[in-house]
Amino acid sequence: MKNLFTLLTILVVISLGSIIQAADGRPSHGRTLGQLPVNKEMLFHQTMRGVFEATKDIHEQIKGLEAEMKTIYTASEFDAALYLEKASTLRQLHNTIKGTMDEAMAKLASQFTAEERGILAELISRKPGPPPGPPPGR
Fold first, then answer.
1. CATH number at residue 113
2. 102-133 exposure pattern, b = at least 16 Cβ within 10 A, e = fewer
3. CA distances in angstroms from 76 to 64, 72, 83, listed in the order given
C-alpha cells in the first residue's frame, strides 16, 4: 500500500510539472525548429550565425556605449546633452542590427514554404525571458 501511495504521488508531481510547463504557452525554440525539415533548420542556423558575424562589431560598439553612458550617469554632474548624444548613437546601432536581421529574415523566408514561414513566424515572435504578467511578489 505504501508503494502504491508513493507511485501515485510521483505521478501527480510529474503531471503537475507538465501542466505548469504547458501553461507557460511558450514552447522552446528547439521544439519549434524541430518542426522544420533538417535542411531548413540548418539554413536558419546559418542565417542567424551570418547575422551575428555581420553585427559582431556593432555589438562591441554597443557595449562600449553602454559603459560610457554608465559613466555619464554616475558622474558628479550629469551631462544631459552628452547622454542624449550617446543614447541617439545607441538607438542607431540597435536599428542597424534590426535592419540586418530583417534583411536576413526576408531572404530566409523567401526560401521557405508558407507552412515553414508559419513556424518561422512563431519562432521569431517569442520574446526571451519570463512569461508576460505581473512581476513576482506583486
1. 1.20.120
2. eebbeebeeebeeebeebbeebeeeeeeeeee
3. 20, 9, 14
DSSP tag of 29: H
- Residue 44 in contact with residue 120, Cβ under 8 Å? yes
Question: Which tens digits make up the pLDDT trace of 62-118?
Answer: 999 999 999 999 999 999 999 999 999 999 999 999 999 999 999 999 999 999 998
Q: Which three cell numbers stand for residue 121?
A: 513566424
- Whole-structure pTM over 0.90, yes or no? no
Angle at 77 between CA 71 and CA 78, to 5 degrees: 65
Give the start-end residues of each E strand in 17-108.
Answer: none
Q: How many domains does the chain have?
A: 1
Cell of 50: 551570418
For residue 95, tell me if it sits in a domain.
yes
> Where in 7-76 does DSSP place strands (E)?
none
